[in-house]
Amino acid sequence: MSYYGPLPSNLIPDDASPEWMNKADNAWQLTAATLVGLQSVPGLIILYGGAVKKKWAVNSAFMALYAFACVLICWVGWGYCMSFGDTLFPLWGKANVSLGQKYLFEQAFLGDLPNATMIYFQFVFAAITLILIAGALLGRMNFYAWMLFVPLWLTFSYTFMAFSIWSPKGYFTKLGIVDFAGGYVIHLSSGVAGFTAAYWVGPRLKSDRERFPPNNILLMLAGAGLLWMGWAGFNGGAPGAVSMDASLAILNTHVCTATSLLTWLALDVIFFRKPSVIGAVQGMTTGLVCITPAAGMGSDHNGVFSGSIPWFTMMVVHKKSLLLQKVDDTMAVLHTHAIAGSLGGILAGLFAHPKLSYLFYATHEHHVGLFYSFSQGFRQVGIQLYGILFVVVVNVFVTSLICVAVRFVVPLRMSEEDMEIGDEAAHGEEAYAIWGQGDRLDNSRYGGSNYNDIEGPVKKTGGQIEMA
Known about the structure:
This protein is an all-alpha fold.
């Protein structure tokens, strides 16, 4: 719903900035939101596209692109109000359209910002959560099932987490949980939901699970670089202001990420005798995720933990666990996001500095780490663990229900024949159309020529392609 009439004079002054709005904060928030958006489009699009086998490059990238677009429409339609609007009950908000005539220009729930800015900022967080879930499902999920899964999971899981943990009216917000920028709402949720959905969808083909080399490591690194740099908006935008807390959050984010990457790399060299590029990207990711729950509250030690504990769960525990090996988590989101996000939340309960926490929460009542106050810190650790349990249970339950419901409409998994082919079967398109002198042979409705259109030195004879 748009507003086509003249704007009320008491709503928008001559310079289009209400007295309560801080222009600098608003400019930074829009910039931070765009940085987070770039993590998904094109960041995770090209990371996924480069990290999978050639035959899955288009499908993997397209799952991310579709999710980004679909989430936006659902978000402005009902998702934002369910996450940050009026209370339906202590864990959930009421569904409502967020494109009302006056609503967009009113002050948001956080900061000196209009709702229009906050809707955009929170949208990119919701979108990247669904795209991270996709990482666990690459290489076999039916795209039509994914098209249904995205709006359903956003509506019945993400909004539940966001309202409970982030909304000022939410149950866990009032308890005093520390989740600065989404270690629980985004990373723990996506890791658990992705792993659960991977269980229901089933594994890739045996040949794909045994050998799944990246088709383009340099492209994967480009996506990883966008992910890292975009995290400045991810954590730096959490305070909703151009503040000391935002500066501290950005610096902590980069220091933790670099430390985590180097820790993971060192462990690879010590135990496997080779410095792995893919391992370095995993260490980078766990560092970014682990710092997120308490980026602005003093987390100097997170990088060492995030580079070692998820490495141990992935390289040691996973290989010895029959349950973990049974579930085919393509991009290891359980380890890089669920484990790292939980770890960051626990570390927040231990290391959250009272004065730094006050910068963000403006209260000394809660949000104090165990190392600074035994009584308050003991309670804080308990709340952090309670939050982890809540996110895990809800996501396992809701994700399972959604997968079962979708399965009644369309198959969750591609057929064995389509999985053998990959992109061409799913979309009629290929990522790298290189054949002969660059001519592409396909039957795509959008993509160039087919066999009968080829001219010059290549021709079709008796169902076979041969050189003229």
